[in-house]
Amino acid sequence: MDNESQYSGYSYKSSHSRSSRKHRDRRDRHRSKSRDGSSRGDKSVTIQAPGEPLLDAESTRGDDRDDNWGENTTVVTGTSEHSVSNEDLTRVSKELEESSPLECKRFLGPVLGGCLGLFALVTPLAFLVLPQLLWREALEPCGTPCEGLYVSLAFKLLVLLISSWALFLRPPHATLPRFFIFRCLLMVLVFLFVASYWLFYGVRVLEPRERDYRGIVEYAASLVDALLFIQYLALVLLEVRHLQPAFCLKVVRATDGASRFYNVGHLSIQRAAVWVLDQYYSDFPVYNPALLNLPKSILSKKMSGFKVYSLDENSTNNSTSQSRAMIAAAARRRDNSHNEYYYEEAEMDRRCRKRKARLVVAVEEAFTHIKRLQDDDPAASSHKHPREVMDPREAAQAIFAPMARAMQKYLRTTRQQPYHSMESILTHLQFCITHNMTPKAFLERYVSPGPTMQYQREHGRGRQWTLVSEEPVTSALRQGLVFSLRRLDFSLVVTVQPLPFLRIGEEFIDPKSHKFVMRLQSETSV
Amino acid sequence: MSFIPGQPVTAVVQRIEIRKLRQGEHLILGFSIGGGIDQDPGQNPFSEDKSDKGIYVTRVTPEGPAEVAGLMMGDKVMQVNGWDMTMVTHDQARKRLTKKNEDVVRLLVTRKSLEQAVRHSMM
Questions:
Q1: What is the pTM of this model?
Q2: What are residue A141's phi and psi, to 5 degrees?
Q3: What InterPro entries does its record include (chain B) (predicted)?
């Protein structure tokens, strides 16, 4: 089947200004040729089958940047296959920064903890085995009590092993800027503990070749008991203490004001930051820089104020008053930019809704063209020409063509086109067809901006966030603390407030006390 | 016209004497009353204080004995023939007004305009 003939209605890049369109088209054609060679010059559109969006999904820059790029730069034009354009540079640098330092640092902590844990688990067995190896003949035989101790030792070790596996052996999902204090504390505790046991063992058992084997077994059993208690302490400190909510965090995205409130327990700042970021990826709508600014046509009227030049040298004190005067004059000047903003918003809404209506109709119609082949319908299936039976990918490609144009226009209106490449739309369509979804379910991904998780690609290297705070990041959360989590082009500002103390009283209502009377209002004539 | 429980009630009243009219076998006075301590005071359209449970004149039939005697809609009836009307049930009030062996009822009624008139005349 000829796949490429289906893509006729779709052009990947939208354009805002006509002058940059030429550059972009030429660049697109050259780039697509160098990539997969499937570009095709039609009369009206440029067809490109991109593999992935050009920039990182989280920090895209809008198309207005492209306008300036096309008109101002003279050195890097990107019109030949061998040049590196601006976008390529930023992408490469971003990949570099995300790759290098995280690989080793990420696994250092868990590896250390794992070694320590293994050492601690092997120690009781070593305590038991060493006397047997070294001076077996001299040992006193030890009967039933020892066997009981062996069994209990074995089970306690098993419990320790299983619970360590369940609690601690998890792939870490964040690296923190400073040491995780509780974890360090516990590792030091375990180390000191086991070391002191070994010390005593060496001095009291190995040197004088102690013959009382039962005492040695009891010694090993006491070590395992103590390890169980340390694990209990670890459980409480690392897992349980922060479960009860104590603070309310307000998280505001600095660029567009999207905000959420979360309840957390007693955490340090860095752990709270990790927790907030976990919630950020699934709660906040994705950051779309194209939606941020007022259109230039509205702002330009405000910008064109009058400039004040001061001609004498020692007029530093006059400049502030002059700037204040300028600002006051600008404020007093009658401007109708709010009117324009209002009408522009209304127009934008209307346009968006119209495009959405067209899209919904197109998708509904497209979905009526295919249906699932029923296996238990022998008469129909025997009539079907074998060539007409399609797998989901082909079915998706078959019905994509009629809705492609409407989809592209809609994405362009809502400024979402950097997030959805044609390939990703086809994959999603295939997914929906496979799972018997309705057109509305297919469209839910496009009509509202989903959380950032939806647009993530698999990244083994992780996301780089910077924690900016005035307090040391290992200090505990308290009221009035403010810290921010910065990424390259936006940041989240987090404010901490304690949850109010609740005084809950009690009022008992007797079930028999629910009684009612009619409200009377009679009028009698006399 | 509001009252404080336990304190004597003071009001400027007008004395109205109504002669009952015989209509068939009934003696009618020609007005309707509303209110009473067993009624809901909040629905009384004539009272100023919506917790006032007194007896109010809600309607006066035109050309009836009450109108002729000078009773007006919205008056609060304070006494009927010497019997107090400020703390009675609706039915008790009706009974006091419709005693078959009485031809004349002498009411003491109060209304807001009376108080204003007294205040004006004192100034």
A1: 0.63
A2: -70, 150
A3: PDZ, PDZ_sf, Synaptic_Scaffolding_LAP-MAGUK
The pLDDT profile of chain A, 526 residues, written as one tens digit per residue, is 444 444 433 434 444 444 444 444 444 444 434 343 333 433 333 333 333 333 344 444 444 444 344 344 445 444 444 444 455 554 554 554 444 455 677 777 788 888 888 899 899 999 888 888 888 777 787 888 888 999 999 999 999 999 988 887 777 778 888 888 888 888 899 999 999 999 999 998 888 887 888 888 899 999 999 999 999 998 998 888 888 999 999 999 998 889 999 999 999 999 999 999 999 988 888 888 777 666 656 556 555 555 556 566 555 556 667 677 777 776 666 677 788 888 988 998 999 999 999 999 999 999 888 888 776 555 555 555 665 788 888 889 889 988 999 999 999 888 888 888 889 899 999 999 999 899 999 999 888 888 887 777 655 567 889 999 998 888 999 999 999 999 888 899 999 999 999 999 999 999 999 999 888 888 888 8
Given CB atoms, is B33 within the 8 Å cutoff of chain A?
yes
User: In degrees rounded to 5, what are phi and psi of residue B104?
Assistant: -125, 140
Output the furthest CA–CA distance in chain A (Å, rounded).
Answer: 124
DSSP letter at A15 equals -
Alpha-carbon gap, residue A367 to A390, rounded angstroms? 15
Distance of CA B98 to the CA centre of its chain: 13
Q: Which chain A positions have a beta carbon within 8 Å of B29's beta carbon? A: 526
CA angle A83, A88, A91 (to 5 degrees): 160
Structure tokens at B90: 């609706």
Tokens 């120690």 found at: A123
What amino acid is encoded at B43 in this protein?
Q
Half-sphere exposure of A367 (CA within 13 A, CB side): 18
Query: Are the CB atoms for B101 and B57 separated by under 8 Å?
Result: no
Three-class secondary structure assignment of A127-174: HHHHHHHHHHHHCCCCCHHHHHHHHHHHHHHHHHHHHHHHHCCCCCCC
Q: How far is CA A225 from CA A118, A152, A220, A518, in A?
A: 16, 10, 9, 72
ipTM greater than cut 0.90: no
**Residue among B77, B90, B91 with most chain A CBs within 10 A, to mutate:** B90
Query: By the 8 A CB rule, do A140 and A212 touch?
Result: yes
**Residue B62 CB coordination number (10 Å):** 7
CB A253 within 8 A of CB A284: yes
Chain B residues inside the 8 Å CB shell of A526? 28-29, 31-33, 94, 97-98
For residue A476, give the DSSP letter.
B
For residues A63 and B84, what is the distance between their CA atoms, to the nearest angstrom? 89
Q: Which helix (H) or strand (E) holds A263?
A: strand A259-264
**A106 contacts A58 by C-beta, under 8 angstroms:** no
User: Which residues of chain B make contact with A524, given a CB cutoff of 8 A?
Assistant: 32-34, 90, 94
Residue A133 tokens, joined = 């190896």
SS3 A195: helix
CA gyration radius for chain A?
35
Cα–Cα dist A163/A503, whole Å? 38
B46 touches chain A (CB under 8 A): no
